[in-house]
Specification:
The chain is an alpha+beta fold. The chain contains 3 helices and 7 strands; from the N terminus they run αββαβββββα. The termini are far apart.
Length: 156
């Protein structure tokens, strides 16, 4: 075999193996997000994380919002500036099994450039997915967070 042929074969093998290695790490992050049917939960709001249980009506609002926003969740690509303005700890059922999720909301109180951003994650912090939505889509979740009684700071 000629040197050029060996070089081309080596180059093709190197690029193929490199691409395969990269995709083997990337593919798990692109798996679809599955949401349980929420049956109970509570919300923590503000910097002091005031906690309150969600009412049946609020659970219904969360279920409706989730049913309309099951797609377009992407993997977390960079670290957020804070732990969010509100966290919804939700308990539900998925395929007959208990399933818990956490929704972290950025309402613009702690980091204005993260306005209307939602994280969905497992309670242990694995499999974090993120989505930013428009004001109109975020309104039902914002109302849940705004019901918290805590001191809001003014914009700088």
């Amino acid at each position: 075999m000629r040197k050029e042929t060996i070089f081309v074969i080596a180059f093709v093998l190197f690029t193929s193996v490199s691409a395969l290695a990269i995709w083997s790490f990337a593919i798990p992050n692109f798996r679809p997000v599955t949401f349980p049917e929420i049956t109970a939960g509570y919300i923590e709001t503000g910097p002091m994380r005031h906690k309150r249980d969600l009412s049946a009506q609020e659970i219904s609002i969360v279920n409706d919002w989730i049913s309309q926003h099951k797609e377009s969740w992407g993997p977390l690509t960079h670290t957020p500036p804070s732990s969010g303005d509100a966290r919804l700890y939700l308990h539900g059922k998925l395929d007959g099994k208990d399933d818990d999720i956490v929704l972290t909301l950025w309402t613009g109180i702690s980091a204005a450039d993260w306005n209307n951003t939602i994280f969905v994650e497992n309670p242990d912090g694995t499999h974090v997915h993120v989505r930013s939505v428009k004001d109109k889509e975020f309104t039902p979740l914002r109302r849940l967070a705004d019901d918290g009684h805590y001191q809001r700071s003014a914009f700088p």
